[in-house]
Amino acid sequence: MHLYGQMAEMDPILELADRYNLTVIEDACQAHGAEYFSNKQNRWLKAGSVGRAAAFSFYPGKNLGACGEGGAVTTNDEQIASRIHMLRDHGQPKKYYHDLEGYNGRLDAIQAGILAVKLEHLFEWNQKRREAASRYEKLLSSVEELTLPFEPAWAKSIFHLYVVAAAERNELLEHLRTENIGHGIHYPVPVHLQKPYQNLGYRENDFPVAEQASRNLLSLPIHPYLTGEEQARVAQAIAGFYGAIRPSVVLNSAR
Fold this sequence. Notes:
Blueprint: H1 10-20, E1 25-27, E2 35-38, E3 43-46, E4 53-57, E5 71-75, H2 78-87, H3 109-119, H4 122-140, E6 146-147, E7 155-156, E8 162-166, H5 169-178, H6 208-216, E9 217-220, H7 228-242
Parallel strand pairs: 1-4
Antiparallel strand pairs: 2-3, 2-7, 4-5, 6-8, 8-9
Helix pairs in contact: 4-7
C-alpha cells in the first residue's frame, strides 16, 4: 500500500516476490501521480506501473477524485485485464453471456468525464501539495513534540495526507477543535483489532508499532489551495499547545 501519497520501497518487495513466486498488487488509492526511483531499473516509476496490477480510488477526497464513487485498475497483463472487464460487468465477456459471477461496477460516463477534465490538472495540484508540505516542514520543524513526514530520496510523495506523530495527540486534537482547525486521524483502529479479523486470534500488543501509530498519528489540513497564512495559523496553534516558540516564518500565500 502506497500510504498517504508516498510509494512503498518497491525493489525489495519485488525481489521478495520473485524469490517466492508471489504476485505484487499495488494499492495506489492514495498515490495518484506518486513516483518511486528503482535502483534496479535506474529510473523513476509511477504508482500503478510497478506491480502486476494496481488499484486506484476516485473517491471525491482523493488527489484525483470524481464527483461520486469510482475507481480503476491498471495492469499490462491481458489475462488480468480481461477478467477485470468481466468482473465489473456482471461477469460478461459479451452482453447476456456470463462466464463468472461478477458485479455491476462500471464507472459511469459522467464520472469519467469529470475525471478526464481533472486529470489534466493533477500534476499541478500534486506540485501544490508538495509545496504545502514543504511549508509545513519549515513551520513545524521547531516543535519537538511532533515527528514530521519523512520523504526518502527514492520517493516523490504527492501528499494525499500530511500525517504527523504527535505527543499527547488526543489533547492536541481537542485544542485544534477549540481553534476551529480541521484535522483527522488515519487510522484510529489497527486492522488486526478490527472486528472482522477477530477470528485470526490477534490481540492488543501483538503489533505494537501499528498500535502506537494509531494512538499518535494526526492528519493536518492539506490541499492544493492551502495558503501559507492558513498553514502558519495551524502551526501557531500547535506550537501554542506545546508551549514551543511561536513560528517566526509566515510564508506568502501560494495560489
